[in-house]
């Protein structure tokens, strides 16, 4: 699946494709952890370590994805605030120029 995502690049933005490939790779790692929790590994202590590793990796993956979501949300908030500020400034400038044009017509 990773090769398919890498070749087809289903998303428009390269960042989204990279995040998707990273998540696919993480799922492969998680599946290998699950395989090692079966009777394939005979030593119970090794299974315990693999289980701890699985839990840690899941938490890291959740943190990574939540971090991406939070940074995207914060970026959108700042961008929206900046655009609203620019819009208000443009409206203010438009009204000023409209008054100047009205004054010039009066003077003529």
Describe this structure in words.
The chain is mainly alpha-helical and 108 residues long. The protein has one domain. It is built from three helices and no strands. It has helices spanning 2-8, 14-36, 44-107. The longest helix is centred in the last third of the chain and has 64 residues, at 44-107. It is rod-shaped and about 95 Å long. The N and C termini lie far apart (73 Å). The model has no long low-confidence stretch (mean pLDDT 91).
Beta percentage is: under 5%
* Straight-line N-to-C gap: 73 Å
Query: Please, what is the average pLDDT?
Result: 91
Number of strand segments: 0
> SS-based structural class?
mainly alpha
Point out poorly predicted stretches.
none
Q: How much helix, percentage-wise, in residues?
A: over 70%
As a whole number of angstroms, the C-alpha radius of gyration is 27 Å
Strand count, sense and barrel status of the largest sheet are: none
Order of helices and strands: HHH
Helical stretch tally? 3
Silhouette: rod-shaped
The number of distinct structural domains comes to 1
Topology readout:
Elements: H1 2-8, H2 14-36, H3 44-107
Which terms would index this structure?
single chain; about 110 residues; mainly alpha; 3 helices; rod-shaped
Care to give the gist of this entry?
This protein has 108 residues and is mainly α. The chain is 87% helix and 0% strand.
């Amino acid at each position: 699946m990773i090769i398919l995502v890498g070749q087809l690049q289903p998303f428009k933005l390269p960042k989204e494709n990279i995040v998707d490939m990273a998540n696919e790779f993480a799922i492969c790692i998680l599946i290998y952890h699950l395989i090692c929790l079966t009777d394939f590994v005979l030593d119970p202590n090794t299974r315990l370590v693999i289980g701890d590793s699985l839990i840690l990796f899941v938490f890291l993956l959740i943190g990574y994805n939540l971090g991406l979501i939070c940074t995207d949300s914060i970026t959108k908030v700042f961008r929206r605030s900046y655009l609203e500020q620019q819009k208000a400034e443009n409206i203010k400038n438009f009204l000023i120029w409209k008054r100047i044009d009205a004054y010039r017509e009066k003077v003529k």
